[in-house]
Amino acid sequence: MASLYGSPNGQALPEPQVPKAPQACMSCRKQKRKCSKTLPACALCDRMNRHCDYSDASPPPTSEDFNALQMKVMELESRLNGGGGGMMSQPSPYATPSSTALGGPDGSLLLCSLMARLSNMAGAYTKKSIGLLLTNSRIEVPKPSVEIPVDVLELLGDSGSIHGMTTEYFSTIHKWMPIVSQKRLQLNLRNPLFEGGPDLALLFLCMKLITSRPQDGVECSHNPIYTAAKRFVALTEASGSVSILILQANLLVTWYEYSQAIYPAAWMSAGWCLRYANMLGINGHDEASKLLGRPGTWVEQEERQRTWWGVLLADRITSLGSQGYIMNSQEPKKDDILPANDSAWDNGEMESAMERKVSNPIEDHIAPFPRLCQASVLLGKVLAHNFGFKLPLDQDQQLQKPRFIEAAMLYEEISALARVLHDETTQAADYLSIAAPLALTYSAMCALCDSYSCPKGCTAKTPEAAAMQAQAVSGLKTVSGFIVEFSNRINANTPNAHDLDRVSPIIMDALYSGASNYAWLVRESGDESSQQALDAIRYSLRRLGTRWRNAAEYLRLLDAREFTYAVGSVTGS
């Protein structure tokens, strides 16, 4: 029988001749790598699953190429014009044939040749720079070489540790902040040819950071994972690295800083994310730079959109505690697209992802993350209202009228969304999935009513102002009652300590706002039911403080406020 691996006469068959290209491919020439020149694709392009271009066109010059040629021209001009003086006229002790030719009799011809080449390169380089402004093509963004720090590699551990960490991330943090594509990441990790870079290592590190629990006696700002992540972010920024993974990683750092009460770092990191997202061009506006170019798949497009909404959420929510907000010129508009259905995106099911806009009726049933984005839109309107109107309540009635009309409309919008969310919680299989958007709605209502309920240093002097003040006080009492019910349901749905990992730190502001209102009611009336409600919310904050330190910080602020009330009542102030 003839061998399957040899010729019938027993001799080895000759090696098949693989056709090769006459020159290296475009990608290898750009990266100055050795090219196998195999057809139809070289070994590296085949392994990276990318298009292999063997055309004769030269790659566009880089800024380094342009500067190097410009230096050669300057050196030749100096030698031709300088005569016998100066450093540039002296023969080099390390002369080469090319360097000695610069001073030869044909130096002027060489200068003309170099000048022509420089002119052509300048034109090509200018065209490349202009190309960065184009929005309809995938722009080649330079990828600086960044070494993954040794301490990062040690913190990440082996592949088994990374797999366990990502599993925990997607089962906890991803439930309330789904900005990283689980499907895309899993497909890449399963691909043996996939090569993860420093930006992926940074994302993994920040996933590990946000899933880490506080340690007793150790400040969260001293967490070794946190300090390593901040150094790594600074390293990628200094190198000029451009990647959506870097943005997602620093967004997780921002949420860690917010949830673990690391201020003012959280507020500054949120601003960094906003600028970086604008640079990448994922905000969906025409004036954006679009450095990432067009997305290749629907999942990629949806991931960019979700990341942008995550940036907006972080920017607003980190501003709540500071009682200040820098207005963003890219506030969501009516025609902006909300994130798709959460499960459809996780599974990559584009056909089941119905498009929803900001202007869609709130009664339309949508997933938790789009609901959270709807609540953030209303919160943005409240912040714009509070910081846009600067007139005190005792001003002229005609000047106040537009303000009161807008406040009343916002009150109705927020109340309507709160009712829809409250109805959805009665039918939801997982209450914690709806907790963040519901709590953010409560925060928006408290922020709106608080600005009218107790004006500083004045009493409402017009009938309209008095009516607005009464409505605000009534609204605070009503929403505070819902917050007590909310805190009780959070406790009921987190019987074990590990259940707290799935609770979003976004809810803490609503709990604190409700507790502050009850502390004020206890001080004013000494009502026993208000005291019981206050104690119930304090209990929730105490439990949640073991997982998210911002809950413990809110509890400390609440204790300080109660102490101030107590001192004030004793002194009669």
UniProtKB/TrEMBL annotation:
Q: Which InterPro entries match?
A: TF_fung (IPR050815), XnlR_reg_dom (IPR007219), Zn2-C6_fun-type_DNA-bd_sf (IPR036864), Zn2Cys6_DnaBD (IPR001138)
| Locations listed in the record | Nucleus
> Domain Zn(2)-C6 fungal-type, which positions?
24-54
GO cellular component terms listed in the entry, alphabetical order: nucleus
Query: What SUPFAM superfamilies does UniProt report for this protein, alphabetically?
Result: Zn2/Cys6 DNA-binding domain (SSF57701)
Coiled-coil annotated residue ranges, if any: none
Q: Which SMART domains match?
A: GAL4
Please provide the record's keywords in A-Z order: Metal-binding, Nucleus, Transcription, Transcription regulation
Q: Where does this protein have compositionally biased stretches of type Polar residues?
A: 1-10
State the residue spans of region: Disordered.
1-20
GO aspect biological process, one term = DNA-templated transcription
Keyword field contains Transcription: yes
| One Pfam entry name | Zn_clus
GO MF annotations in UniProt: DNA binding; DNA-binding transcription factor activity, RNA polymerase II-specific; zinc ion binding
Main localisation: nucleus
Q: Which PROSITE patterns match?
A: ZN2_CY6_FUNGAL_1, ZN2_CY6_FUNGAL_2
Q: Name the chain's protein.
A: Related to Zn(II)Cys6 transcriptional activator
